[in-house]
Amino acid sequence: MDHSPESSPSHPTLQADFTWRKWQAVISDRSNPSKPIYIVHYRPFAISSQIVFKSATDDTTVGTGTLHAFSINADYKLHGRKGQIKALKRWKTAYTHLSSAYSDTDTSLTAMTWASSSNFKTWDFICLDSQQMPVAKFSANLWAVKKIGQIEFLGPKATSAAVRDEIVVTGLTLMYCMVLRTSSLLSFFGAIFARPGPIKSDAQDIAPEHAPDERSMVQHQATSSKT
Predict the structure, then answer these.
(1) What are the C-alpha distances in Å from 33 to residues 15, 57, 162, 178?
(2) Which of 15-24, 92-101, 130-139, 201-210 has the lowest mean pLDDT?
(3) What is the pTM of this model?
(4) How far is the C-alpha of 115 from the C-alpha of 72, rounded, in Å?
(5) Among 176, 160, 157, 169, which residue's Cα sits nearest to residue 55?
(6) What residues contact residue 62 under an 8 Å CB cut-off, 6+ apart?
């Protein structure tokens, strides 16, 4: 069952096109695909695979993502700030990261949650804020060779450049992390020995106010379909 919020042409949306020869993706605005915004370089053949996100305008590094052969968590760096994409569950797609873009203050971080839904054609990664409201959706095309997916932004911060950078870096890193998990025996054992749960910061657990569940995702889908 698809629990993701319904797509709308009015929401800001990016599309990702992959080039296998160069192991890179070009991300652009769906309304202007000829003008790239990000160039994503994927380096898969290493113990810790790295994803590098660069600005297509000036070639500066926006962020990086790091996947691990054994651990089911991933690490990332966004504009110099290090962060973690940490599993909340062992055997389902439920992850969290600490966000500066969605925080109400400049000095604190807020916990975001990533959940997922899938069907035969797409695998949706849905980012929820601290109130468990969907703020972004990355839809990966399971059978695509070139057009690997699109990222849709929702809510009042949908047009924020800081939000766009954060969702692109964390969303694609999580997608590659889950692809690794579904294809690696080491990741299977990594899940067995993992310690899932909220990210600890300053000796405290920073977690969403409510854990994501199927009922809340269905309610978000119903609300989105009415708008």
Answers:
(1) 8, 14, 21, 27
(2) 201-210
(3) 0.80
(4) 15
(5) 169
(6) 38, 53, 54, 55, 78, 79, 165, 168, 169
